[in-house]
Amino acid sequence: MTDDFFDDLLERHGDEAEFLGALRSYAASWHSDVVPKATSVETLSAPEPVYASVRVPGLEGALDTLWIGARLDPAQPQWLRGSWGEAGYVDDASGEDPVHDLRVSGVRLPAASLARIAATWVEQQLQRTLREGELDDDRRLGGRRRAGRPDARIVRRGGFAIARDGAPHE
């Protein structure tokens, strides 16, 4: 059920409702171990940007959450951003990772199209193979993500967390 993803305390209207409705629909079809309770929406009031998060199963440490931010207010320049973070959204002050961060600006698209772009980016990030320690705090050195030690234990592969015994969690 799509209503279970990205639960929100506010009643949204217009582009915000369209964006979140489409995002919920896409999330329900992700091939991943993400469950609805691992997703959330920040309860900022309109016309503030909408922020949504996905807690990534199998990760521990400072960076274990995917964040999406979308400014949808028609009176403002529109943008869409996505980044790895923690309890708070990682913005440009934390450094950009041009390879893995999502940045869309300079165009005006329907809210549902932005949701499709955001959902595709999240699913791509969930499908990445991640090694233990790859997303440590110092990952943003000179705009380059640490690759992790080649001998480090794989903690996620193909959208699913890897248990300590080596079997994927589904």
TrEMBL record:
It comes from the Bacteria. This is Uncharacterized protein. The lineage of its organism: Bacteria, Bacillati, Actinomycetota, Actinomycetes, Micrococcales.
